[in-house]
Amino acid sequence: MKPYVWILISAVVVIFATIIGIIIATSGGSSKSSTQKNSDNTLVVWRGIDNDEVFKEAIKEYEEENPELKIKVVKKDLMDYELNSINALLSDDPPDIWSIPSSWIPRHQDKLSSAPTGFLADNPSKAKENLEANKKSIEESFAPIVAQDAVVGNDVLGLPLFVDTLALVVNPTMINVSSKGLFELLDNNSADQPERTKEETALLEQGPRYWSEFIKLSEMLTQKNGDKITRAGSAIGATDNVTNSADILATLMLQSQTQMSSSDQTMATFNLSQSKNTGDNYYPGREALDFYTKFANPSESRYTWNKDMPNDMQAFVDGKVAMIFAYSYQLKELINKNPGLKYAMLPLPQVEGADQAIDAGYYWLETVPKSSQHQEEAWSFLKYLVKSGLSEYHSFVDRPYPVLSDDVPTIEKRIERKNPWTFAQQTAKSWYTGPSPKEVNTIFKNMIRSVNQGESITNAIDLAASKTTETYQGL
Q: Which SUPFAM superfamilies does UniProt cross-reference here (predicted)?
């Protein structure tokens, strides 16, 4: 064969080999990159509340015990948190731990992995065949509301770092001023007033245990000039300027033993009649709505608030209202903005004659998405966090602990404990708001607003129940 032919063949072979090499290198590089993304030993934690500082020490200790692992906490904007989270879960780089409000569980449970069987037990190796071990661990470790929300069947879908509750926050300086004026008034009244003075003095000193006492205290603290409210006794009855109006109303329904939804969770039932032990029918949902909205009805003696008042939180800071309803994180925000704010916390009033208190609960759950490539490692870190890292977390955030306690005061004794965030999580309840909790919250606000504008209680609650049912059914 002629030399130039060999040269030509060699050149072709070199060029072909080079092309193949490039293809292999490129393919290999992509494969390696993909492998690195999936095998990268970094747990990414997405949160809409708190920053990475609250986990700094816990993460440091965990990484020292697990040197092959790194943990990265990412704080996301709460405004677009859900949308951005869903996009991330659908991408090839999802978070390994996703912190979400407990009310989001029905909406997103198909995206969440459950804790490995027996994993949360004290001795996982012995419990790995026990399908109920994780559920039992949740029931024995955390406030009852956690098992109500985080457990589906026997599957545990998330773990809590706190359980917040709604409390009555009062301005003690207003109460003191009002009580002084009250004493002067009563001294000039008839001889049968001393007993009444004793009751009202106790109410001013201790606060209300029951809603009936709350009405009386609110009336005592409300100041009016004709029909105009110059200082509100309490911020309740309306909706747009009452931050937690939907939660207050829902809790009133729960305290009245309202069945909020059907047993199969396909229909809202808070508008329907129920049977008493006597066999008589009554409408606890209607009664709760009527009770709430009367505080914003000028024709009622308890009238203390209306739609023209400022936002309740700001009104409290400005000294325009004596009592508001707030979660601990909301009060903390007020204190941070107003360090000199004077306040006292009292437990949420209850229905007189009830066997047990019922409080409104609010908390987030730390979950592990199914799309995570590090599910086992993520669950291991979460288990460590709730068992060993809670003290460090709470030293930063000062939120109510989520752990189970048998130190639950009776309704009569709750008021003596003053700080409700040391015990109210044990009696916190939630209700099924379905796959669209934000929409249901809006429905409740609209229900209140319609009554404030003159709609009948029956029509307003029936419409709200109908619309809530539509959200259950995805309509």
A: Periplasmic binding protein-like II
Residues lower than pLDDT 50 in the chain:
1-39, 180-196
Residue 208's identity, in one-letter code, is: P
Give 85-118 pLDDT, tens digit per residue.
999 999 999 999 999 999 999 999 999 999 999 9
Class of 40-163+363-397 per CATH? alpha beta
Q: Distance (Å, rounded) from C-alpha 275 to C-alpha 302?
A: 29
Q: 154, 89, 105, 82: which is closest to 371 by C-alpha? A: 89
Pairing of strands 359-362, 164-165: antiparallel
Return the CATH superfamily for domain 167-362+433-472. Periplasmic binding protein-like II (3.40.190.10)
SS3 percent helix, strand, coil of the chain, rounded to 5, is 50, 15, 35
Which residue(s) pair with 369 in the sheet? Answer: 112
| Residues 226-236: tens digit of each pLDDT | 889 999 999 99
| Same fold flag, 40-163+363-397 and 167-362+433-472 | yes
